Amino acid sequence: MTLKMEHIYKSYQDGDKEIEVLKDVSLEVARGEFVAIVGPSGAGKSTFLSIAGALLSPTSGEITIGDERLSSLSKKELADARLQKIGFIFQGANLIPYLNVRDQLLVISELAGEKSKTKKAAADELLEELGLGARKKNYPESLSGGEKQRVAIARALMNNPDVILADEPTASLDKERGHAVVQMIADEVKRKNKAAIMVTHDERVLDLVDRVIRIEDGRLYPV
């Protein structure tokens, strides 16, 4: 397994009251597997994804990516793991307005302390794969919504992470563009043998995933 979440609990203190957001959540996602998490607002989807991506720590439970248990890592090691082992695709593409398309990818490598000509070649190859080869010198303002999300997919794959996490990647797209973007994520998951989780409200794209899991009242239920 590439991603393993074991007996995850997450609670917050609200005055004298303790609010449980996640309750005994366990999930394993293998290489090459694309899993969708669906559920109503307030069910714990965002908290779940933040914990899977090491942005939040669970109150209790264990997360393992590859053969690395996240609870054993220092703060610096955890930050390195986020850069090198996890690729995030956010609800909005979150592109940096003053960087062109190719540089959006290269900045990820630079954050990880890697600068080389091979990284430029890797960025160009990813952009070609996703149909953006001719747009690599364009800036975000000149891209369509679908193109921006494709750049976000390429950026998430730039450091060859073990796990891809997508947070509502179709939220700002129409049906056709949304389906095309999720199809690209699915294709890349298979082509590059990644484990992937997508949180979504969009039932129109569920035919593209391997498994659908519902989250409700902080617990996971197979669909």
UniProtKB/TrEMBL annotation:
Domain ABC transporter: 3-223
Entry keyword ATP-binding: yes
Highest taxon in the source lineage: Bacteria
Membrane topology (UniProt): Peripheral membrane protein
GO CC terms: membrane protein complex; plasma membrane
A GO term for molecular function: ATP hydrolysis activity
Entry keyword annotation includes Zinc: no
Role according to the record: Part of the ABC transporter complex hrt involved in hemin import. Responsible for energy coupling to the transport system.
PANTHER family named in the record: HEMIN IMPORT ATP-BINDING PROTEIN HRTA-RELATED, IMPORT ATP-BINDING PROTEIN
Similarity field: Belongs to the ABC transporter superfamily. HrtA family.
Protein name: Putative hemin import ATP-binding protein HrtA
Species in which this protein is naturally found: Listeria weihenstephanensis
